[in-house]
Amino acid sequence: KKPASKHYPYKVLQEHYQTISELLEKKDYLKLIPYIQESLYRTTAELSKPKLYQPAYTGTKTLVSNYLKLIDKALKILCESEIDNISTKDKLAQFKQAEHNFGRPALMLSGGGTFGIYHIGVVATLIKHQLLPSIISGSSMGAITAGMLATHTDKEVLTLLGKPEESNYSPLKRLPLKGIWQQQSLLDPEQLRSCVEHNVGLMTFEEAFKKTGRNVSITISPARTGQKPRILNYQTAPSVFVASAAQAS
What we know:
This protein is an alpha/beta fold. The protein has helices at about 10-25, 30-45, 60-80, 90-100, 120-130, 140-150, 155-160, 175-185, 190-200, 205-210, 240-249; strands at about 105-110, 135-140, 215-220, 230.
């Protein structure tokens, strides 16, 4: 409950909280719009410091919580209120500009062998709650899920994952000893290919982006020693098949 702390500019936050409250009370939305943008731009980094949230597991400073609640309230009012000389188009432009200032959320899907299957439950839940970011990266096992998201709409993903008993999501199959010797590989490449093609399909990064609007990147290991890993997406490799990238990853 004590606002003072060296971990964030509490005096600035108190001043901003007071000013935003006054502008809301006066319904002076023309001044409120630029003030909120400036306030968030100045304070977001400090309000994200981990030390503000680590000591007390029940929450952080009351001032921080109240400020964020006030910002949430103000944004909803600005969104829903009629404002002189500001059209809906202008409002949307203001919100998009604010979004650019603060960056975009991204989902990173890692490797981990069969543990990567947990990715499908995570993305299904995010889609159901309309929280799936449009920027997604995948590596190794995570590349299969990322590839699936690249080439399927939300509805198609949920349909694909809706019947686990009918799914083909088993990319890893150990070869018998004879096969290991013949192919110089521990895992069956046909099993991987079948899984990837079933879940990702045959679509290039460019075609996938035009269909879903998701900016999906897949990392692949270099073919030669000394090279750096490569990031494949609709900008760096538009003509590459997403399934090929996922299989290579």
